[in-house]
Amino acid sequence: MSRASFIKNEPLRFAEITSSDHLYQKAPCGFISFLPDGSILRVNETLCNWLGLTEEKIYDLKFSSLLTKGGSLYYEMVITPLLNIRGFANEINFSFVGLNGNFDTLFNAVACYDEEGIIIAINATVQNITDRKKYEAELLLSKRYAEEEKRRFEFLSNTIPNLVWTAWPTGELNFINQKLKDYFGEHNINEYKKFSGVYREDRGSVVAAWDFCLKNGRKLEKEIRLHAKGKDPEWFLLRSEPYYDKEGSLVLWFGSFTSIHKQKLLQLANYSSLSSSLSIAHKTIDDNKEMFMKIAMNQSHMIRKPVANIMGLISLLNEIKISGEGHELLILLNKSVEELDMLIKEIVSHTKISL
Amino acid sequence: MSMNDTLLMSNIFKRNNVKVIGEGAQTLLFAHGFGCDQNTWRSVLAGFLDDYKIVVFDYVGSGCSDFEAYCPDRYSTLDGYVQDVLEICVELKLKDVIFIGHSVSSMIGLRASLQAPSFFSKLVFICPSPRYINDNGYYGGMEQDDLDALLEVMDNNYLGWSRPISSAEKYSVEIPVLDQHFTENFCTTDPEISRKFAQVTFSSDSRTYLSMARIPSLTLQGRDDMLTSEKVARYIQQYTPENRLCLLDTAGHFPQLSDPRAVISAIKDFID
User: Fold this and answer.
1) Which domains does chain B have, with CATH numbers?
2) Given this chain, do its domains A3-128 and A160-259 carry the same CATH topology?
3) B43, B62, B65, B103: which one is catalytic?
4) pLDDT tens digits, residue range A133-148?
5) Is B253 marked active-site?
6) Which value does ipTM take for this structure?
């Protein structure tokens, strides 16, 4: 049915429903007007019903007495000056005292002034938000619970000996524990720039590794040196792991520095003693090898001398007339001595290369 | 004046949003109470502009003060607020000031006058209380439960109109009464700071300071005031040397807003 046909068919009903009085009395919100001293001028039916009082009874009361004690104090101290000075107050959460129990509301008010700017009266609307308020109370409870959890985490993080931190997915620091603050002697988290506490020589590789982890959501584990003002650089194990929420989004990085300075120094000392024993062994081997080569050189020299003699004697024998069988033997003898000579030369040249 | 002094002065001006109006020889220093700021004085200032130099300010954490300067330790007792008052006096080189404090500022002014007597000549207490909560035969008018209930309401309004301050949330309003003098700025409050100020205010106890007062004081008290009462005002009069009591026929905790004429005339009567 269109508006026009409704007005044509039901003119009386239209007039009744949209009349100012009907709108005021039966509106789905409470209306109340009162003087600055709280004396109530007028209240609508809806609010009377919520309060469980007749209009006349309400006119005997002051506005603030309709509120719970905390609300009336808040009204007196905070809302009164606000209305006086600013002229309006919006979305104030007040609990009204009703015959059937307290009900939560959202309260909006405007002030009416006289010609001199002095407040004469206040007009206010009251929305019943009891159900919504329950939900809000749950939200507030969850918020408090989350804050409590945060405090617990911070407490826990201060009881362990590690330097603990958390960072946002962007890499920006979100929390640092007391141990970390104490280590660097700086309590303001904003003063901690990107790994500026890492020892100069290690910083480049740490920043690169951390950037890689940030991009890929991978955990980080690295031995690094931290360098606090007035202290020597010290070894720490840097660990950082991404924390994913239920939906699988990376929400936080948990990180820690565990001191490994003593172990690391011990490890480095062990390395150096092992390496020095290895070099001693190496030198011994080299010395032995050299000695062996010298012997080989000497021996080869000593062997070559008689071999040269034999070869000379063979060439002398070749000039003497010898029987056929003797000549055959001489050829065989010459071949053998040449083979022996070749063998000795090879040994000598090999020894030279090695030395 | 050295460079440092200039810097410090401008810092305190900014920190406490200090405004100096009028040229009179005698200075009136107006100090607001919990839950509001210097705007609370808008209707009474007009009555003094012609004859007095007027200083108004916001405590750190209130109004348009510098919220960054809020240090929880310093403001964990009324003494932090006393320091605000004294530092303003030092920066403005004020002497023999008439201090006009509303609500909790009454006792802040009294404490300041004990710490630096030469800064002050008279004190005006508007709706004062040396202790809000009843205690062992002492009637303050409130119980600890009332304070807890108030804090609960403040918590419930955490998400409402009170939000952390940002410059974008400041806005200006022309006020008819004082339009030739200054434009008011309204700033949203920080709920955490308000909560702490409420706790400091309502857990404060200034009863022992009353008898130490060495300068004349005036108490203004209306009727139907939920925070304090004629009974408390009479207690102050009984224990404070040279304290005059003036009962006003106006309801509520803010007579400077509900009946500025009566407040102006009572103060003038006391100081002129």
Assistant:
1) 3-271 (3.40.50.1820)
2) yes
3) B103
4) 888 788 878 988 998 9
5) yes
6) 0.84
